[in-house]
Each structure stands twice: as structure tokens, then as C-alpha cells.
Amino acid sequence: MQKLLRHLSVAAFLFSLAACKPAETPRQSAAAPAQSTGNAITINGAGATFPYPIYSKWFDEYRKQHANVQINYQSIGSGGGIKQLSAGTVFFGATDGPMTDAQLKAASAPILHFPTVLGGVVPVYNIPGVSSQIRFTGPVLADIFLGRITKWNDAAIAKINPGVQLPSTDIAVVHRSDGSGTTYIFCDFLSKTSADYKQKVGVATSVSWPVGVGAKGNEGVSGLVQQTPGAIGYVELIFALQNKIPFAAVQNKAGEFVTATLDSVTAAAASASTTMPDDFRVSITNADGKGAYPIASFTWILLYQNAEDKVRAKIMADFLRWALTDGQKYATDLHYAPLPRPVIDKEMQALAKVQVQ
């Protein structure tokens, strides 16, 4: 009995301490992940898997110049990055698909979008016995992911791939299982080229897939396609190149079958360079222009316009100025396309919106 009373006394004491602790407001919670130890400052972010290689490089290079700053980034998918930033569990987010009006409205405070680099999403495949590069149109890709085309030697695929001996192998569709900007970009293109796809699937970071098997991250989709004969999936260009997975040429708006390269992705951004909206939320899939790769996109870092933690807000604004200037030189070696100059100039002005005082 005495032992029980002692336990109850300790429990009551701990409860009284907890009761005295002031509750955090949502805005305080948003700043909580950014921790400081002595003179060192840690800032946490999360989001898109596509920019993870270059963000890792950037954060490492930035720390070489600012030894007291540690920027951490979790590669969890665009949907996860948006959710964590909105919930205030990270200081910044990252996405390959811009936040929707509804998502921005649901956030506790205004959030700003800052494009960082450009990338392309490519259809990757594993077709036994086929060494030639496959070609796709938007409508054919849409019908595959709608489950209407189920064999690799289907007449619709054969028609745009003359001379290629396509097997009768079943098509195994692989898609993202997590909230993903890569999914957003891919669905955005397919919805622009197929009215049925737009109606039945639509455009979002997470959609209800009619067919296929889900895998987490670009890494998961890449791995599953490589392991599955007859598979098709979609990943960011860098993951196809790094993993040496065959990827298709895709017909653009001008009627050309274009392979994703840094030049063809940059060409897709040409029209957006002079018509970029003030909030930087823009789609460049199925873009006009010769040589433009049609499944291309910017990727964005997301920041609160008026974060409560001004020290970290100032650091992130400074980091973005560095990333938009000196940091761009690291893009091509990591298979990203640098931003067009007019976009950079517009962003440098927009950084003044980040309140650092």
C-alpha cells in the first residue's frame, strides 16, 4: 500500500508540472522543429523525392560557407511535405506539384512557392527482348494507365513504334503509392491529352488508380519496374538515368517524339519564362514549342511568408538567394535543368515577401 501511495504521489507531481506548461499555438508549433544548440542552428524540411539529390548537395555546400547552419531534409514525397508544412512539423516544405487553392486556404498562414530547378518525368519500362527505345503518345499512355491497353503488342502501341518487335507480354502498371509531385506532373500531362483520363483520374498528388500496383517514392517505382518483366511506371528523369532503366520518348504538342534531356526540359520552360505568375504556381506540361519535352515541371520550396522564427526565416531566404545564383551551377551534373534567367530574376524580387524582421 505504501509503495502504491508513493507511485500515486509521483504521478500527481508530474501531472501538475504538465498542467503548468503553457500550450503551444499552431504558429509556435510550426517553428518548433528548427532547433538551436549554442551557436548552431538546425532547420528541418521535408517533401519531394525528385529534388533530394540536389537539395542534399546544396545543403552540404551551403553549410561549408555557414558552419553554424544545418539544414536537414526528409525525402518523403510532395504530398507528405505539404502536409507536414501545413501541420507545422517542419520549417519548410518541397513539392513537384504546386499547392492547390484549397491547400493554401487550409494552411494556418500564407505559404510562398519558390521554383528551384526543372526536371522531367519519364515513362520507364521493362519489356523482355526489346532493346529499341519505345515511343508513346499522351492518349496511348493514358489508356495504359486506365487499364484499356493491356498487352505490349497492342495495335495502338505498335502503330507508333514501327519496326519494333513487341511481345504479347501483359503490361504491369506501376504507380506511386504515396502523395507525389511526380504523380501530379504525370497526371497533369495525361489529363491535358486525354479527356477520359481527366474525367476518370484527374490531377492531384494522390489519385485513385484504376489499375496497377503502388510503390513508394521514385526509388520504389524504379525498383519494381526493374524487377517485373512487362512493367511500366513513371519516375523523375534522374532516377531513370541513375538506375539505367529504359525510358520512352513522348510525343509533344508539336507532334514530335522527344526524349527527356536537360535541353528538352529547358525548352518546355521557355514559354513560362516570360508569363510566370506572381505566385510561381504554373504548369509546363504539354508546352508549346519545338523540341519541348512534354512531361516537364518546376520543383518548388515552400516557405511561410511570415514565420514566427525570424532567425530561421532569414537563413532560408539567404539560402534561396544562394541556390538561385551560385547553387544553379550544380544542377546539370546532377541531371537537373537550371532555371531560366527571367524566372530567377522574378524570384529574387519575390524573396522580399519573406518577412525576416
Q: Give me the number of helical elements.
A: 14
Question: In the CATH hierarchy, what is the architecture of the largest domain at level 2?
Answer: 3-Layer(aba) Sandwich
- Provide the CATH topology of the largest domain: D-Maltodextrin-Binding Protein, domain 2
CATH class categorisation of the largest domain: Alpha Beta
Q: In angstroms, what separates the terminal alpha carbons? A: 58 Å
Categorize the overall geometry.
elongated
The named CATH superfamily of the largest domain: Periplasmic binding protein-like II
Query: What is the N-to-C succession of helices and strands?
Result: HHEEHEHEHEEHHEHHEHEHEEHEHH
Report the structural category: alpha/beta
Largest sheet: 9 strands, mixed
The rounded Rg comes to 23 Å
- Number of self-contained structural domains: 2
Helix share of residues? 40-55%
Low-confidence stretches: 1-37
The number of distinct β-strands equals: 12
Sequence-ordered SSE layout with sheet pairings:
Elements: H1 2-20, H2 26-31, E1 36-37, E2 40-47, H3 52-65, E3 69-75, H4 78-87, E4 92-95, H5 101-106, E5 111-125, E6 135-136, H6 138-145, H7 155-159, E7 172-176, H8 181-193, H9 195-200, E8 213-215, H10 217-227, E9 231-236, H11 237-242, E10 249-251, E11 257-258, H12 262-275, E12 296-304, H13 310-324, H14 341-350
Parallel strand pairs: 2-3, 2-4, 6-10, 7-8, 7-9
Antiparallel strand pairs: 1-2, 4-12, 5-9, 5-12, 10-11
